[in-house]
Each structure stands twice: as C-alpha cells, then as structure tokens.
Specification:
Shape: globular
Radius of gyration: 27 Å
Order of helices and strands: HEEEEEEEEEEEEH
Helix content: 10-25%
C-alpha cells in the first residue's frame, strides 16, 4: 500500500509528484523489513516443527506434535484440538493416515502432553475401543469391539487386558510388554 501526503495547493504541481515519489521511496525500507520478518517468522515456525524425538510425529495442520511409539514411513497425522508447548492437549480429533493416504486410526477424546489421556474413542479398520486412556494406552475401564465379534470389556492396565492364562488383549502395548508372550 502506498501512502501519499498532499495538500490542496500541491495537487497539480511538480512538487506534489516529488512528494509522492519521496514517500514511496521512504516506504521501501519498511516494506523490505516486513518481508524479512515474514520469512524469519516462517523459518522459526519450521524450526518448531522438528519432532521432539524418534517417537514423536509432527501434526500436519498446526504447530503441534503427538507421541508416536511405533512410527511407520510416510504416515501423517492431523489434530483438531489445542496445543501446549508444541504438544497436542485437551479435547479434539486425531486422524492417523498411512503412506497411501488411507485412514489408519481415528481418535476422539482427550490428549495430555501429546498422548491419549482420559476418556476417548479409538477406531481402526478392524475395531473400536471406547474408554479410558493414559499415555496412548488403554488404562481404566473400557470396551474393545472387534470386527470378528470379539469384545473385551472391563479394566485395562497400561494397554493390557486379562492375563496370560486366560483371555487377553493389548491396546497401545505389545504382548511382550504385557507379559502375554
């Protein structure tokens, strides 16, 4: 935007043209500074978008990250909730996509420090879990429904349900971490 200052007496004079030129010339450093700030701001945002570590993934749609304990090449994540200190926080919707763009997981619920926390609903291609989470693992009361018709309902601890001697399931933990294998 060009700003010119002219009074009524100088509108038709050469002096007016000189004033306009001088004002435009004076604005060039201001415009150059604004463009520099814009690029520096973008560079700073890009620096913030580096993952905190190998078990974190940067959210595509905002300056935010989520915990990713089992990273896969080419996967992407979007998050609709808030961010605190660069990590997903509060209520929202997380959509995890595979490298071919298909939806792998959808989570609707609470996040704390970039991980599932509190009540939430996790849906994947062959099932769904509805219940309590802590640190991206089923923890507390919850129900896991599988496409096959199998259902696990009750208390989950650190991603583990049941025990090795009877019926068991994992959600957010491996069978080895639960002591089932």
């Amino acid at each position: 935007m060009w700003i010119t200052i002219q009074d009524a007496a100088s509108v038709v004079s050469n002096r007016s043209r000189a004033t306009t030129f001088r004002n435009r010339t004076m604005l060039m450093p201001v415009i150059a500074a604004a463009i520099s700030v814009m690029f520096l701001t973008q560079a700073s945002a890009d620096d913030l978008m580096k993952p905190f570590g190998p078990d974190w993934i940067v959210v595509e749609n905002q300056s935010c990250q989520v915990h990713n304990p089992y990273p896969e090449p080419g996967e992407t994540v979007t998050w609709s909730g808030g961010c605190v200190d660069g990590k997903a926080e509060g209520e929202g919707r997380l959509v995890w996509r595979t490298s071919d763009g298909s939806t792998d997981l959808t989570y609707e619920g609470g996040m704390k420090a970039g991980a599932f926390y509190g009540y939430g609903v996790l849906t994947w291609p062959s099932g769904r879990y509805e219940g309590e989470f802590r640190g991206r693992q089923a923890h507390g009361y919850g129900i896991a429904h599988y496409e096959s018709g199998v259902e696990y309902m009750g208390e989950w601890r650190n991603g583990c349900f049941g025990d090795r001697a009877s019926v068991w399931a994992t959600l957010g933990a491996t069978p080895e971490e639960c002591g089932f294998e």
